[in-house]
C-alpha cells in the first residue's frame, strides 16, 4: 500500500503522524511510505531520519495526497486539505467530527473512508488511541493552569503548591477518566488540594484508592459544581462522551460565582467543550477572559510537546496502521472489532451514530 504522512498545517501543530521508527516497520512490511518535506521537524525528526527508515520524501502536501492510498495524520484535515481528499483515500487521524459540521460535510462529500483515532474502542470500553493524548493533555492542563494563575497573565496570583504558612491552591477536576486522573495526579504532585468529580462511582472509588489524601472525590451534580467553583482556583474540564459533543457542565452564569482570576482549562474543547463559554484557541493565542475568568481552550494541547506526543501516539497507532496496510480497511475492520469502531464515515455515509446525533441528522438520510 502507498501510505502518506503529510505535514500538519493546523496552527502551531508540531506533531507528525508517524515517527521514523514507525516508517521503518511499514517499509519492512513492503509498503511505500511518502513523507512530506519537513513534516517531522517540529517533533525533532529530520527528512534524513525518514529517508534512512525507507521513506520517500516529497516536496508538497499535494504530492503526498496524490501519491497515497492511506493518509496517516494527527489532527483533523483543515479547509485547505478538503479538496486533496478523494474517494480512494483511507484517512486515519483524530477527527472529532461532532464538534465541526463543515468538516463532517466535507468528508461526506469526499466519499473517503474516515477512521477516527478517538472512537477506536476496546471491548472494555477504553479508547486505546485517545488514551496517550489524553494522558498528555491531562498533565498539561495543570502545567498550563499553574502558569495562567500567575498575576501578570491576569490569574489570581496563586502558587498551586503554596508555601509553609500559606495554604496550597485548590484545583477542581471535572471527570475522573484518563484526563481527570492525570490532571489530579499532576496537581497533587505540586501539592495542591484537589477535588475530582464524576458521576461514575466506580471511577471515584478507584481514584479514592490510588490518590493521596489531599485528593478528594465528590459526586458530580450541578449543585455540587456550583458550590465548588466558588473557592477553587483552577478548574479542569476533562469529560468525554465517545464520539459525541461534550456536556456543558459550566454555564455562563456560573462565571459570576468564581473569584476574579480563576482559570478554566477545557480539555474537552475538541468535542465542543464542557463549558458554555468555551471557544477553541491556539498555542499562539491560548487564552481569553470573560467576566474576569481566564479561559485556556487550546484544541491541540499535546502539540506543544510534540516530541513526547508523537512518540506516544505512534506507539499505539502503528499496529493498526500496519493491519490496515497489510489487509486493506475492509478486511482489517472485519477482523478487528476494536478498529471497526473507528469507522466514522464510509463512502459518503455516516456510520457512527453519535456524529449524526450531534447535528440532529438522520443516519439513513445522509
From TrEMBL:
Residue intervals of the Alanine dehydrogenase/pyridine nucleotide transhydrogenase N-terminal domain: 4-137
Residues that bind NAD(+): 134, 198, 220, 239-240, 267-270, 298-301
Binding site for substrate: 15, 75
GO molecular function: alanine dehydrogenase activity; nucleotide binding
Active site: 96, 270
Recorded catalytic activity of this chain's protein: L-alanine + NAD(+) + H2O = pyruvate + NH4(+) + NADH + H(+)
Superkingdom, taxonomy of origin: Bacteria
EC number(s) recorded for this UniProt protein: 1.4.1.1
GO biological process, one term: L-alanine catabolic process
Alphabetical list of SMART domains matching this protein: AlaDh_PNT_C, AlaDh_PNT_N
UniProt keyword list: NAD, Nucleotide-binding, Oxidoreductase
Cellular component per GO, a single term: plasma membrane
Domain Alanine dehydrogenase/pyridine nucleotide transhydrogenase NAD(H)-binding: 149-297
NCBIfam families reported for this sequence: alaDH
Family classification: Belongs to the AlaDH/PNT family.
PANTHER family the UniProt entry points to: ALANINE DEHYDROGENASE (PTHR42795)
Protein name according to UniProt: Alanine dehydrogenase
Species, as recorded: Winogradskyella endarachnes
